[in-house]
Amino acid sequence: MTEIEPVVIKIAETRVDADGVRKLMEQYNASDWYNRIKTAQPNDTELLIELSGRMCYKSYGVGLNPNVTKIREDSRDYLTNVLSKGDGSILEHATVTFAFLNVSRVCTHEIVRHRAGTAISQESLRYVRPQAISFWVPPDLRSVSSEFEESVQEITRHYHELESKFDWDRMTFEEKKRVTSALRRILPDGMATNMVWTANHRTLRWVIEMRTDPSAEVEIRKVFGQVAEICIRDYPLLYADFSRTRLPDGTSQYTPRYSKV
Ligand SMILES: Cc1cc2nc3c(=O)[nH]c(=O)nc-3n(C[C@H](O)[C@H](O)[C@H](O)COP(=O)(O)OP(=O)(O)OC[C@H]3O[C@@H](n4cnc5c(N)ncnc54)[C@H](O)[C@@H]3O)c2cc1C
User: Fold this and answer.
1) Which residue's CA is minimally distant from atom 25 of ligand 1?
2) Between vectors from CA 186 to CA 180 and to CA 191, what angle results, nearest 5°?
3) C-alpha–C-alpha distance, residues 186 and 196, integer Å
């Protein structure tokens, strides 16, 4: 058995098209706003969300909408106000894509329950026939880790025994797929797999809150603890209201001041 740790890597994020934004701002007579903000706010994600929100009231400057007599100039004030009012729909404009590596199928099954605002690609056990079977040992089983390892080795042995009953070199790709899919039925939920997961920031705030809660499973808490740290580091205004509490098992809970925006 290969023992591993869940790993989170940020692999993509939303970028603005500067020429397009410039053209749009000309249409709105709001070039002054853009020229000011593009140096003060180098973060594309936060800029796009602010730009989209300001379109709703034409609040790029006083006078563009005769009903607006004052605006929040500062991006931090603007976005904090959005969060405090629960106007989270504009957070859906920007997404982040993560690779979750060495996560169990227990964990991925929980992740896919979050439907709104996500995109998912998971390594297929119909197409991919595993060779080594890797596991993360949960803290509650550390005291019996050798027995845990023996059980995993036993299952792995049975898996490869069954696998060896088939003449893989003579099978078509379709036949291999069918048998690989049938064989996976004896593999444990705890085996490690990989997933690419994309979510918008409205969803991310919610899933971080839910899945780092002390009542969540420890593995998903480890994964979303890493997601939270990346989001707080890379989108400081959007996650400024999150506070971190260390939990006795070494994981952390991340609690927003404004829940479910
Ligand atoms: C600690 C913990 C324990 C859990 N235990 C269990 C369990 O024992 N059994 C079990 O089955 N599940 C369990 N779950 C999973 C849970 O029930 C949810 O399915 C999961 O957390 C997804 O969250 P969500 O419903 O907020 O959906 P998301 O897809 O994350 O949606 C976000 C929000 O969008 C809105 N929304 C999304 N879809 C719809 C819709 N179709 N209609 C209306 N509004 C929508 C809702 O307001 C929702 O909260 C558990 C989750 C946690 C965190």
Assistant:
1) 114
2) 90
3) 25
